[in-house]
Amino acid sequence: MATTTGPIFPSDGLVFMVDAGNPKSYQQTNKWYDIAGKSRWYMDLGSGVTYKSDFGGVLEFTEDNSGFARISGGYINLSEVDNTTITFSRKLSNGNNGRVVTALSNNWLLGHHDTTYGDYYAQGWIQSGIAQSDTTWRMFTGTGDETNDVWQLYVNDSLHTSNSGGSQGPNGFNINNQYSQFSSAQVAMVACWDRVLTATEISQVFEVYRKRFGI
């Protein structure tokens, strides 16, 4: 009998993952639980974070200091190792100057900065924006091959940038609340690995999620 299989989500090296559409991760509380399977770590959520059932479940962040999701580097620190971070996120207002997915204890961001999307900063610019921010869902992937000093940005499943501009992976996460740069935004998923995913693996993650966001 012929069988068919779908895309496989890469689990090797997965160290942290939160997904608002998974009830094991978000349970209508002020905590967003890690579902990587190695712990019961969680991100603390501010009072300005609300759950929306759209797109299979997302968290919406207000454009102020109450809209945050935070976990310290004591739980997840990829600043000094090879790493990959993937997030599905979007801004709800394209005119603000805020960030969305950022680190907590170092200067690292992925996805949005100021009024552009496609930004990737890892203690050094890999990509300073691609185009004006809009309300479109995108998968942003930032890799850091610290061993060989190669840093890459993927948008959805396409490689956009590859250079030696970065120097550190994320040390903790502080979504929407770094340097008082806030955004009206939605984030559905953040996942990170302690290794560099291949282009094929990044495409597999995209295929797992793309229908959920209509992309």
Tell me about this structure.
The protein is mostly beta strands and 215 residues long. Helices cover 7% and strands 40% of the residues. The protein contains one helix and 17 strands. The strands form three sheets. Strands 1, 4, 5, 7, 13, 14, 15 and 17 form an eight-stranded antiparallel beta sheet that branches. Strands 8, 9, 10, 11 and 12 form a five-stranded antiparallel beta sheet that branches. The chain has a four-stranded antiparallel beta sheet with strand order 2-3-6-16, with no helix packed on it. The longest helix is centred in the C-terminal third of the chain and has 15 residues, at 199-213.
Relevant terms:
single chain; 215 residues; mainly beta; 8-stranded antiparallel β-sheet; 5-stranded antiparallel β-sheet; 1 helix; 17 strands
Q: SSE layout and pairings?
A:
Blueprint: E1 14-19, E2 31-33, E3 42-45, E4 49-52, E5 58-61, E6 69-71, E7 83-91, E8 101-102, E9 108-113, E10 116-122, E11 125-127, E12 131-132, E13 138-145, E14 150-155, E15 158-163, E16 173-175, E17 185-193, H1 199-213
Sheet having the most strands:
8 strands, antiparallel
Number of discrete helical segments: 1
Gyration radius, in Å: 16 Å
Structural class: mainly beta
Q: Total strand count, please? A: 17
Alpha-carbon distance between the two ends: 32 Å
Give the overall shape.
Answer: globular
| Helix and strand sequence | EEEEEEEEEEEEEEEEEH
Mean pLDDT: 94
Strand content: 35-45%
Low-pLDDT windows of residues: none
Helix fraction by DSSP (H/I, runs of at least 4): under 10%
